[in-house]
């Protein structure tokens, strides 16, 4: 599927077209002050799966949700005093906060990668803010480049990298910062920098009046989830590439099924995608893993999923779910 690409500079019409596309579940690249983002409705798992398909990312790391202001973000994330101080000082701007997720947030689990936390940011770019306001929903947006390529700071970079995979780019000229936002984790008592970026460690430390620990160098600090082998690991053991049931060996398993796999003999079956559609399976992945993770089963069996398209990222995540457990950072 390669929709014809439209690149539109700022106008009321361009903004309302972009907002309508996002609300309809399509992808739109838009400028922020850091880099161009590849946006999708964060409450629509199928749209978010489209981000991974377009970027050809080989793994599902959690994505940042973007909001027009702090109060919109607070519907989805729980702000403590530290979060409020940082938001007051640096928002709108190049700072992302990882906070506990509100229990009634409708941001889909593919955005948060099944975690109980959520990364939120209020960008400063006027076009981004106007767009976010017009959409009225959280927008998940990683940088608008193919995986492994340099971050896009002009509409031309986006077109070059993703032009045949997305339908629309809002052109806001070159990005001012040119470096992704700083990611600060506030889900523990400590203040941990998960990703350095536009706002410095010293700036954050000065506002909070405490140390900021670097995740990359401090072994006791929580790491960015992509770096944890078994981040979101279910409680039950996970068996990959399960082609047949074997209760004598594995007990009563629930099968996460895909395409024309063999479902015979399993205790229960949950479909990732009946038609063998990798995008549907990606959209379902974390929700189904959670649903399967019930103590009445002895294990979760995963049907074989072809290593093509989003299958790569799905299998990467399943391998992490099946990996020997590393302790989670304490909440
Ligand atoms: O400047 C930016 O931040 C750009 C523009 C488009 O806003 N966006 C961006 O988004 O870089 P993304 O989704 O690629 O950044 C994700 C970063 C990763 O380092 C990821 O590990 C971290 O945020 N992250 C997201 N959710 C998290 C969570 N729940 N816990 C810990 N880290 C999280
Ligand atoms: Mg990126």
Could you walk me through the main structural features you see in this protein, from its secondary elements to its overall organization?
This protein has 331 residues and is an alpha/beta fold. It has 2 domains: 221 residues, DHBP synthase (Alpha-Beta Complex), CATH 3.90.870.10; 85 residues, Threonylcarbamoyl-AMP synthase, C-terminal domain (Rossmann fold, 3-Layer(aba) Sandwich). Helix content is 30%, strand content 19%. It contains 11 helices and 15 strands. The strands form 2 sheets. An 11-stranded mixed sheet has the order 1-8-2-3-7-4-6-5-9-10-11, sandwiched between helices. Strands 12-15-13-14 form a 4-stranded parallel sheet. Strand 9 and strand 10 form a beta hairpin. The longest helix has 15 residues. The chain is globular, with a radius of gyration of 20 Å. The mean pLDDT is 91. Magnesium ion binds next to loops.
CATH architecture designation of the largest domain: Alpha-Beta Complex
Q: Percent of residues in helical segments?
A: 25-40%
Number of strands: 15
Please count the helical segments.
11
* Overall structural domain count: 2
CATH class of the largest domain: Alpha Beta
| Silhouette | globular
The largest pleated sheet is described as:
11 strands, mixed
Query: Strands of the largest sheet, in order across it?
Result: 1-8-2-3-7-4-6-5-9-10-11
As a whole number of angstroms, the C-alpha radius of gyration is 20 Å
What structural class should be given to the helix and strand makeup?
alpha/beta
End-to-end gap: 42 Å
Whole-number mean pLDDT: 91
The stretches of 5 or more residues where confidence is low (pLDDT under 50) are none
CATH 4th-level superfamily of the largest domain? DHBP synthase
Beta-strand level of the residues, as a percent range?
15-25%
Bound molecules: threonylcarbamoyladenylate, magnesium ion
SSE order, as H and E?
A: EHEEHEHHEHEHEHEEEHEEHEEHEH
Protein name: Threonylcarbamoyl-AMP synthase
Keywords: ATP-binding, Cytoplasm, Nucleotide-binding, Nucleotidyltransferase, Transferase, tRNA processing
Subcellular location: Cytoplasm
EC number: 2.7.7.87
């Amino acid at each position: 599927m390669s929709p014809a690409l439209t690149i539109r500079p700022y106008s009321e019409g361009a903004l309302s077209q972009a907002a309508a596309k996002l609300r309809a579940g399509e992808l739109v690249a838009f400028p922020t002050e850091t880099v161009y983002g590849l946006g999708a409705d964060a409450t629509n798992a199928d749209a978010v799966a489209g981000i991974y398909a377009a970027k050809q990312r080989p793994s599902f790391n959690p994505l940042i949700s973007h909001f027009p202001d702090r109060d919109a973000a607070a519907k989805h994330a729980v702000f403590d005093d530290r979060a409020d101080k940082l938001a007051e000082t640096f928002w709108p701007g190049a700072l992302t906060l990882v906070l506990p997720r509100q229990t009634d947030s409708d941001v889909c689990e593919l955005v948060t990668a099944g975690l109980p936390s959520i990364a939120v940011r209020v960008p400063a770019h006027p076009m981004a803010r106007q767009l976010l306001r017009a959409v009225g929903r959280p927008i998940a947006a990683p940088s608008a480049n193919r995986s492994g390529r340099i971050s896009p700071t002009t509409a031309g970079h986006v077109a070059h990298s993703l032009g045949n995979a997305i339908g629309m780019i809002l052109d806001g000229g070159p990005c001012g910062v040119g470096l992704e936002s700083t990611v600060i984790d506030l889900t523990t008592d400590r203040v941990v920098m998960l990703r350095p970026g536009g706002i410095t460690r010293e700036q954050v430390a000065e506002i909070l009046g405490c140390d900021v620990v670097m995740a990359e160098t401090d072994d006791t600090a929580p790491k960015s989830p992509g770096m944890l082998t078994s981040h979101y690991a279910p409680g039950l053991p996970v068996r990959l590439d399960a082609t047949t049931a074997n209760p004598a060996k594995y007990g009563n398993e629930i099968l996460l099924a895909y395409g024309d796999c063999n479902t015979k003999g399993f205790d229960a079956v949950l479909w990732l995608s009946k038609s063998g559609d990798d995008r549907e399976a990606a959209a379902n992945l974390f929700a189904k893993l959670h649903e399967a993770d019930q103590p009445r089963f002895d294990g979760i069996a995963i049907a074989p999923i072809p290593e093509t398209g989003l299958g790569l990222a799905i299998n990467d995540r399943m391998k992490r779910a099946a990996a020997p457990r590393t302790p989670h950072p304490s909440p």
